[in-house]
Structures are given as C-alpha cells and as structure tokens.
Specification:
Elements lengths: L1 H20 L15 E2 L7 E6 L7 E7 L3 E8 L4 H17 L25 E5 L2 E8 L15 E10 L4 E10 L4 H9 L2 E2 L2
Antiparallel strand pairs: 1-9, 2-3, 3-4, 4-8, 5-6, 6-7, 7-8
Length: 195
C-alpha cells in the first residue's frame, strides 16, 4: 500500500518536471535574429523564456534580456494587413486608456477628476512599418504610472507589421529609468522586417 501511495505521489511531480524542464522543440529558432525581423543590438539579447514558438502556433511570446535591458516580444503569424491595423488600434487603445482622466471614486468630489501630468503621458512615434510609444513602467513592467516614485524603467512599446512574411511583431523594450529615452527611440526605429 505504501509503495502505491509513493508511486501516486511521485507521478505528478515527474509529470510537472517533464512539462517545465523538457527540452524545447528543435523547430523553434534558437536566437532572436531568426524571427523575421531585425533591430539594433538584437544579437546581444539572450532568450530567457519562450512560449508558442513551434510550427503549429499562430502566436509566440519571447522574453529576453541583455546586460542592461529587457525585451518582451509577441509575434503573431499569418496576419493580414487589416488584422494588423485592428490589432495595433486595439493595443493602442488599451495602452492609452490607462492614462485617461477619471472621476474620483468617492461621492464628495475634492477635485473634478484625476489623471496623469503631461510628463508621464506616452509619446507616440511612427516608424516605417509601425508605431511605437515612449513611456515609463514599474518594476513589474506595467504601464499607466503617474508618479515618479513608481517608475522603475523607461520603456518602448511598439507594434510593427511585416507584410512579406505576414507577421505582427509587438516589441516591449525596457531600460533603467536613469537612461535617456533617446536610447529607446534609436532601438525602436531600428526595426526592420527580414525574410
């Protein structure tokens, strides 16, 4: 009876270990430079985690780090130009809605509305194949911050479309808050589609 209980106890642990520590599929590209796009210094990043990069998946999520920066990448395959426009508009709406002025949550208003100071608002920029924003994030890489003490990173949030390979690429780039937004601007502008 004890052996049977031990076997039943070990089986879930072994299954869990296999799922999370099994080798990744050999079909997935090994580096960021093999994903259908290029960017300045992309080869300096090491992939730290990856989901959905097999041949059957329509959407891949990649997390990468370099010595002083972090990347979150989402690649959507088999996307049309119309789908890319819809996706970009939806993501922009979600991002910008975090900064919308709101009425206070209490019945007796001390102020008319709450909102972010202009210096915390995202700055929209256009690049050849997409749009990106320069903004701030907290230590968990969340946006919508309106106070200096919450800011941990400066960030770039961009959505690009590669019509030749029908991919939407969402790039989120994070650097230390002490660095300049010019570094993010340079990185995001360097996006180019490859085959």
């Amino acid at each position: 009876m004890k052996r049977l209980l031990i076997i039943f106890a070990l089986f879930p642990a072994l299954a869990f270990a296999y799922i999370f520590f099994a080798p990744k599929s050999a079909e997935a590209p090994a580096s960021l430079t093999e994903r259908g796009f290029s960017m300045k210094d992309l080869s300096s990043f090491t992939i730290t985690d990856e989901f959905g990069s097999d041949a059957e998946s329509e959407e891949a999520r990649i997390f990468a780090a370099s010595q002083d920066a972090r990347l979150r990448i989402k690649v959507i395959s088999h996307a049309t130009s119309d789908a890319a426009k819809k996706y970009a508009a939806g993501q922009s709406l979600l991002l910008l809605s975090q900064y919308d002025p709101r009425l206070p949550p209490y019945p007796e208003f001390l102020t008319n509305q709450t909102g972010c100071d202009a210096r915390f608002m995202p700055v929209r920029k256009n690049a050849g194949s997409g749009t990106y924003y320069l903004l701030n994030s907290d230590m968990r890489f969340n946006y919508g911050l309106c106070a200096d003490e919450l800011i941990h990173y400066k960030a770039g949030f961009g959505i690009f479309y590669c019509p030749e390979i029908k991919k939407i690429v969402q790039i989120e780039y994070f650097i230390g808050k002490d660095r300049s937004f010019d570094a993010i601007d340079t990185f995001m502008r360097s996006f180019a589609c490859t085959s």
